[in-house]
Fold this sequence. Notes:
Elements: H1 8-45, E1 56-61, E2 64-69, E3 75-76, H2 81-88, H3 93-99
Antiparallel strand pairs: 1-2, 2-3
Amino acid sequence: MNPEKPSKNEDEYFVRRDxxxxxxxxxxxxxxxxxxxxxxxxxxxxxxxxxxxxxxHEFELEDVKIDRCVSCGGTWLDExxxxxxxxxxxxxxxxxxxxxxx
Length: 102
C-alpha cells in the first residue's frame, strides 16, 4: 500500500465531511436570506393598511393610538389597544361590541 495515497475509508470520510460543511453553509445562507426577507417584508408593510395597502395614519382615541387608513377607512388596533379602550368603556354599548373581539 502506498502511504501517499489515501485509503478508501479516508476518501469517504473527507467526502462526507465536505458534504456536511456544504450543507451547513447552505443552511446558514438560507437563514441569512430568511432574516433579510423578513426585514424587507417588515419595512415594506410597516404602517400599511392590511386591506388596501395604503398608508395608515395614527390618531388618538382616549389616550390610545389607533391606526386608520384614509383610503378605505379601515381601523386597526395593535396588541393590547383594545383592552386599553375597554378600560374606559366598561359599561354601555361600546363595551358590548368590543367584548366580541376579546
